[in-house]
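Dear colleagues,

As part of the handover before I leave the project, I'm documenting each prediction I ran so the next person doesn't have to rerun anything. This entry is a single chain, and its sequence is reproduced below.
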Amino acid sequence: MFERFGDADVRALIEGHPLAWVCGGGAGALEASLLPLVGVYDEAGRLTELIGHLMRSNPLHAALLRDPGATILFSGPNAYVSPEHAGRRDWAPTWNYAQVKIGAEVAFDAALTEYSLKVLIDAMEAGRPAPWDVAELGERYAGMLTRIIGFRARVTGLSGKFKLGQDEDGATLDAILGALPDAGTVAWMRRFNGGR
């Protein structure tokens, strides 16, 4: 039940919560870092790769050069749901959440570094009254580019869990939707429960 989701759900989660744990390095040498990532999608809307960058000095960089296999973990909205929210004392508390786990092959490419910055900045600055541009860094930008490297993470597997109240009866779900103070989680609960 909680593992049923579509490509649009994956995209919405990644676009809404782009900071992901990137883990790699193989057995016995695991490294992990939180990195902002931007998804690339095919014509059908399926996630095919993620674009990102990291500091060359980050131990994850060396680990992924040794073994390019990575696990990438996106965590979406989440909230503790109390029996108080459900309006029922005979109901057990739970935690609602959305998550996506991606297996990927990471390929570093210095030629991709500026592009990886551009797509991330464009995504994060979209909709702002005065979007920021890298040109505003002046000479600092060239120096920064020498310390980071861009990468593509080609998706090799994807699983997810969207535990958002799909197992609740109508009255309990309505009570939770009306009482839960976390608007982000409520919006995702509505998404996965027919727009209630």
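The radius of gyration is 20 Å. The first strand starts at residue 19 and ends at 24.

All the best with the project,
I.
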